[in-house]
Amino acid sequence: MANTLGAGSSSTLLDGVELQYMYEDGGEVVLSFYDGYVRFEFLNGPLAGTKHEELAYLSRELDEQVYFVRWHNRDVGSYVTLYIDFPRSRVFGSALIWYSSDNPVDLFDAAVISRVSRENDT
Fold first, then answer.
1. 8 Å CB contact between 4 and 106
2. What angle do CA 9, 108, 5 make, to 5 degrees?
3. Could you say which DSSP state residue 5 is in?
4. For residue 23, how many other CB atoms are within 10 A of its CB?
5. 9 SS3 class
6. What are the distances in angstroms from CA 71 to CA 1, 15, 55, 77, 109?
């Protein structure tokens, strides 16, 4: 188990991982980590079609296969924080999307992971 208080952040901890998950509101997301960046696409739900890539991320392993992740997309005014629990197949997200616009979206939701792949899986 990682030392929660003393653990440092990493920009590559989850590189090579792709996961797909569905939020309680029906929003389905594919999220990939690569080379210190994250890319995502909403497949279904209220934000369907929203996608971005090459967003630098930071992550911290809180426990074995449990991660705290964040990224900031200044171009569109979005800040996202995720708690990813692989053993329990859960994602908890908090985000402020399009915070510079007239119609910002405030997200605070839970999701179930339906698929995980790792670059080194055979």
1. no
2. 25
3. T
4. 21
5. coil
6. 24, 14, 7, 11, 17
Tally of residues, the chain:
122
Instruction: Kindly state the tokens that stand for 60.
Output: 């911290």
d(CA 35, CA 16) in angstroms, rounded, equals 8
29: number of Cβ within 10 Å: 22
Q: What is the pTM of this model?
A: 0.88
Q: Which residue type does 18 have?
A: E
H/E stretch holding 2: none
Give pLDDT tens digits for 12-36. Answer: 899 999 999 999 989 999 999 999 9
Which amino acid type is present at position 26? G
Give Cα separations from 15 to 7, 57, 63, 106, 111 (angstroms): 18, 10, 17, 27, 21
Inter-CA distances, 69 with 30, 100, 101, Å: 15, 22, 24
Cross-strand bridge partners of residue 117 = 18
